[in-house]
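Local shape tokens

___
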Amino acid sequence: MMPDGISIDTSALRTLATDLGKIPGKAEPGLEVVMKRAAQNIKTDMQAEFRKSTHFRGVAGHVSYDRTGFLGSVGYEIGPEVGGAGSLAGIAVNGGANGGGGTVDIDHVLEREAPNIEREVGKILDRLL
């Protein structure tokens, strides 16, 4: 009871807060599927961009993705592997110190996949809310 004699029942708010707190754990399996599919799509698009290059097509075979994060988080790191032909990716994308390179554009591959990620995550959240 408040000092002026008004009482407010907040038990429903506590229940709501508890229920909302369960959403991340319930969403994680679906998010894992969405993010893995997105990582594969981004990898495939990135490989296609490298294959278009006369000089850097060998980098395409060295593009991969790794899952990052632990329990409670989902993430993927996507890009050329360090070492071998994959190390040429920096020159292919950004160019070398003496000019040259900089002919491969991979910035747009995430932009192309972002609407799909947003749509699928939205579907998962809609089911849980």
About this structure: DSSP finds four helices and two strands in the chain. The helical segments are 11-21, 23-51, 89-94, 108-128.
